[in-house]
Amino acid sequence: MEAIxxxxxxxxxxxxxxxxxxxxxxxxxxxxxxxxxxxxLTAGQAFxxxxxxxxxxxxxxxxxxxAFYETGMAAKMGEVLTRxxxxxxxxxxxxxxxxxxxxxVLSNTATAAVFIPIVIGIADRTNISRAKLLMPMAFxxxxxxxxxxxxxxxxxxxxxxxxxxDGLGFNFFDxxxxxxxxxxxxxxxxxxxGHKLLPNTPNDKGEGGTADGKIGENVPKWKxxxxxITLVGIVVGMVFSEQLGVPIHVIxxxxxxxxxxxxxMSEKQAxxxxxxxxxxxxxxxxxxxxxxETSGAGMMIADTVIRFLGEGGTPFVVMAAIFLLGxxxxxxxxxxxxxxxxxxxxxxxxxxxxxxxxxxAMAAVMGGTMGFxxxxxxxxxxxxxxxxxxxxxxxxxxxxxxxxxxxxxCLIFMMIFFPFFP
Length: 422
What we know:
Distance between the termini: 36 Å
Strand content: under 5%
Structural class: mainly alpha
């Protein structure tokens, strides 16, 4: 009975995430409460997601990323990296590379927020249509998050679910084995094909900011240096967390505390930089993963998928099915929600087959971050909609080929580096 109730709640979550009639975070909380009221989970289990180490990482990195942004260092970094590009192709490649680099340590939303005024200014100075530059920038803000453990909330969610399952999560750069080839394909695509599929709308010089967006203009140099040093220190500490014997969430919190204690950020600024929607979405959705496992619902789904694929289904077919389900969902609901919903199911499928759950989780993560075909797939996609003068069909036209090329690339490299049966 508990398994059936869990499946109905899962169906409700999927429908509400797709429809977005109410905020995603509110849907997640409703799911958590429904699992408690129905007796599937205890109250302690339902609220356990809010004290998960991944939530602590989210909170701390929001503060650190906010400091890097507010002091103007993120904007300066982008300006320096895009200063010497002359041709349209060079500008596109440089913007995508620098944007992806920043996306490895900041959320895709913060990365896009930094680069939008910079890209608008570059477009105005070079007379290149903003529409040719803003969509590639938005897509690489997401692709950059595929390179490190802290790149996106989805990466950390999959890591946390794996640790709960068998104590073995992902290493800091595991995602780069798939993310780097995908980034390379994405850059080549927009440099030689994709930019031709984007509209060539004229720039409105009287609208929007410029590359000299004045972010952090009056911030003292010492604050800028401390923000940069702290961010670099946190990344290095996370890379070597096992050798140091210090968990990554502790390292992140130490960095955030340091920025507030030194005055780089005020307490009010630190609080305002935290995106509570992500916190509530994660904290409210994680109990659903617990319910799928404890009630047996996850195994029911796994058995159904395996029967659907047939007993002769190859490991590649199973991995592709998980990946493609993530691709479809990620273009209509957030990647965080997609990964949170799909990863526990993928782990259950792998476990029932005696396969590597890390491979299944990687397929869920990579499929869940392929939101390139709609403007609602990711926050950066939505953020550039008006600034780039795009229509919905522009995303479909330019994003679908990237979706196909990216899917082929991801599946090939997942079979190489994360085979179902290593």
